Amino acid sequence: MKGITYITLDVVLAIHDDMVERYGGSHGIKDLGLIQSALARPQASFGGEDLYPTILDKAAALFHSLIFNHAFTDGNKRTSITTTARFLYINGYEFKVDKKELIDFPLRVENKHLTIVEIAKWLKTHARKKR
Prior knowledge:
By secondary structure, the protein is mostly helical. 60% of the residues lie in helices and 8% in strands. The chain has one domain: Up-down Bundle (Four Helix Bundle (Hemerythrin (Met), subunit A)). Strands 1-2 form a two-stranded antiparallel sheet. The chain has a two-stranded antiparallel ribbon with strand order 3-4. The two termini are 20 Å apart.
């Protein structure tokens, strides 16, 4: 998919720092390679075809990897949802979700081991292309 702007390492680290400063928790990275892997996943392809063909699939892959790679000492779920919202925003999407669902959904993803397909379906109900 052409014309996609991807999240950089500097951006996700800044988001994580902001989440910890705002809401508490410990600063720190357990594994930088896992963060880099999560950031690369939406760009994955095989045989010249994107593994995650739509923007929502790419966002879901990013969200899934950031949560399950658990690369930060603390704040993985907060960083995941915020980074995903930022990814959608910089690619022309509005992300509309109420505060309770914003907190509950990452917990559901982690506790119920939701798949990328399930995450993409949820994102589809909450993300709209900006006009």
